[in-house]
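Thread: Helix-turn-helix domain of resolvase, structure

OP (GT): Posting the sequence first so everyone is looking at the same thing. Length is 157 residues per the record. Can we get the structure tokens written out before standup tomorrow? I want them in the notebook alongside the other entries.
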Amino acid sequence: MARDNSPKARQQKDLQRKQGQRASHDRILIVTEGSKTEPLYFQEIRAVYRLNTASVEVRHSAHGPAPIQVVEYDHELFLQGNRHNRIQPKAFEQVYAVFDRDEHPSYAAALQEKKALDDTQIAELRRRVDAHEPKSALAREFGISRATLYEYLRAGN
């Protein structure tokens, strides 16, 4: 009976690896139009808020500074990765394209390209909302915020 409380048994229990307590964070890719200023802003934000460098990756667009080029590059980087920069394909849960709203002729095209849901997904979303499925669950499933969900619903009326 004394074996359960023996020093050897207690020591073995203490040596076992404990489960992690921290929640994992989404990996975020931020692609900017500028190669100097914008990446420095985001690096500073990451440092101030003590975000793990493995969670946030900031890159400038290798395709050029036009908004459509930034969006195309973030899409390419997400889908194909970049072996030279050690970025694996589809390694991020969130991807952002950051560009100015200057007089770029491709600004509207870039926004349309970056739209969260395509027309078939929007139709499916509306159909399921009409079927009284919970909006918060739908937003989570489609990977959008509830505010974005309501924007899509308002746009359809």
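GT: Both are above now. Quick notes for whoever picks this up: The helical segments are 7-15, 37-48, 67-80, 107-113, 119-130, 135-142, 146-156. The CA atoms of residues 125 and 138 lie 7 Å apart.
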